[in-house]
């Protein structure tokens, strides 16, 4: 009996002493490239805030405009990422300025509830998608994994845009629309402050 | 049904506990490094850290609520933009002489407007509020420190400013009741008095 217990204890100690990595935790395995793309979008306010703003604006402009932008924005984001894979580079200061401009323009459009023609709205969405997609993957070499990361970003943009636009599409009450427009003015204000930061601190502003 | 009073010893213990908490040293300063734009929280706390700013922001909301449509929503829509433009000017180093006096005057003028229920054309109201917004924004922009995340810092800053307006609007909605009108006007008087104190401090 005592010999059996000793054997079991020896096996248990031997197993415990095996030098092996568990691979059970994300710190070892990572999230995987698709989730990396989703995380990147969700954790980057310079990406997610303009997308939400554009979606709220598209919802206020009606379902036809919202559908067009729902297709245009993720496609442009993917195109921007693909351009970044080609090795093209942009100065960091340029991307910082583009971020500030995006906040001011999109916030201003939302605050004014500007009756833009659909073509102009699509052009604005395409510009935002190209710039942000490029900025996200600038300096990243092309690989299958990075392509999946870009796909994760594109999917996030699509889903977040659709959800945010669906918030303002059914709005009819005056006060609710005003609340959204006030949010737009806050966003434009944020963009103005960002422009000041860039002016003062250059590319290292953010 | 009457409740039995708490024992004297228990009441003394509660009072001692409350006094003890009041005497605790309040400045924990455990996380946010002073003077740096760490992120959202430090940006959010910036506008609410100065009483001169708070009373003016709240007064704008109260005045807008007194004036009704469209001022009640035009002022919160335009003020953050003008203030942010002032912040932009401050950040890029454009001087604005007399900013402290302008900020103090904003309390005096906006408080007086609320106290007197001053009614004016929308363009005039927007101009008055806009000019004062420029002074407030410039002061904030000139003071903004370098930090780790200006985007989140600025987002917190703008959100806090907007919420101060909202507080003013909510307070201003009391004017629907007769007694509420008096309360708001008294609040305007308090803002004006605060503005006068800040004006005195600015010029001496």
Label this structure with key terms.
heterodimer; A: 206 residues; mainly alpha; 9 helices; 0% strand; B: 204 residues; 8 helices; 74% helix; globular
Describe this structure in words.
The complex is a heterodimer of chains A (206) and B (204). Helices cover 79% and strands 0% of the residues of chain A. Chain A is mostly helical. Chain A is elongated and about 85 Å long. Chain A has helices at 2-16, 26-29, 33-42, 45-61, 63-85, 92-112, 118-137, 144-168, 174-201. In chain A, helix 5 runs parallel beside helix 7 and helix 6 runs antiparallel to helix 7 (118-137). Chain A has one domain. Chain B is mostly helical. Chain B has one domain (40-203). In chain B, 74% of the residues lie in helices and 0% in strands. Chain B is built from 8 helices and no strands. Chain B has helices at 8-23, 40-45, 51-67, 71-92, 99-116, 122-143, 150-172, 178-203. In chain B, helix 4 packs parallel to helix 6 (122-143) and helix 4 packs antiparallel against helix 7. The termini of chain B are far apart. The chains are: A mainly alpha (206), B mainly alpha (204).
What is this entry, summarized?
The complex is a heterodimer of chains A (206) and B (204). By secondary structure, chain A is mainly alpha-helical.
């Amino acid at each position: 009996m005592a010999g059996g217990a000793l054997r079991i204890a020896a096996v248990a100690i031997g197993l415990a002493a095996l030098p092996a990595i568990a691979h059970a935790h994300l710190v070892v395995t990572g999230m995987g490239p698709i989730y990396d793309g989703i995380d990147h979008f969700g954790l980057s306010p310079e990406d997610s805030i303009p997308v939400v703003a554009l979606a709220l604006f598209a919802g206020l402009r009606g379902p036809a405009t919202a559908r067009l932008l729902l297709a245009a924005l993720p496609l442009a984001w993917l195109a921007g990422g693909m351009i970044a894979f080609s090795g093209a580079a942009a100065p960091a200061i340029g991307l910082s300025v583009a971020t500030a401009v995006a906040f001011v323009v999109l916030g201003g459009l939302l605050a004014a509830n500007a009756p833009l023609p659909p073509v102009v709205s699509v052009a604005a969405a395409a510009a935002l998608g190209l710039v942000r997609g490029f900025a996200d993957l600038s300096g990243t070499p092309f690989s299958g994994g990075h392509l999946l990361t870009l796909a994760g970003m594109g999917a996030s943009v699509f889903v977040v845009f659709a959800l945010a636009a669906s918030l303002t599409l059914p709005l009819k009450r005056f006060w609710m629309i005003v609340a959204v427009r006030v949010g737009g003015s806050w966003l434009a204000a944020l963009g103005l402050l960002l422009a000041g930061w860039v002016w003062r601190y250059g590319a290292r502003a953010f | 049904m009457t409740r039995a009073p708490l024992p004297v010893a228990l009441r003394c213990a509660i009072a001692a506990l409350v006094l003890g908490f009041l005497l605790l040293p309040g400045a924990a300063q455990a996380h946010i490094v002073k003077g740096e734009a760490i992120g959202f929280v430090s940006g959010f706390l910036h506008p609410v850290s100065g009483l001169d700013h708070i009373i003016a922001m709240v007064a704008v909301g109260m005045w807008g609520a007194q004036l009704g449509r469209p001022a009640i929503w035009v002022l919160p829509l335009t003020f953050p933009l003008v203030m942010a433009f002032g912040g932009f000017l401050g950040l890029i180093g454009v001087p604005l002489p007399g900013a402290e006096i302008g900020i103090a005057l904003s309390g005096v003028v906006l408080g007086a407007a609320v106290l007197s229920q001053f009614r004016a054309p929308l363009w005039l109201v927007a101009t008055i509020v806009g000019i004062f917004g420029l002074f407030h924004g410039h002061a904030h922009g000139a003071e903004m420190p370098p930090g780790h995340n200006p985007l989140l810092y600025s987002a917190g800053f703008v959100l806090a400013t907007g919420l101060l307006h909202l507080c003013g609007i909510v307070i201003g909605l009391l004017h629907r009741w007769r007694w509420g009108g008096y309360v708001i006007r008294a609040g305007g008087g308090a803002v004006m008095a605060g503005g006068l104190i800040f004006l005195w401090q600015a010029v001496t």
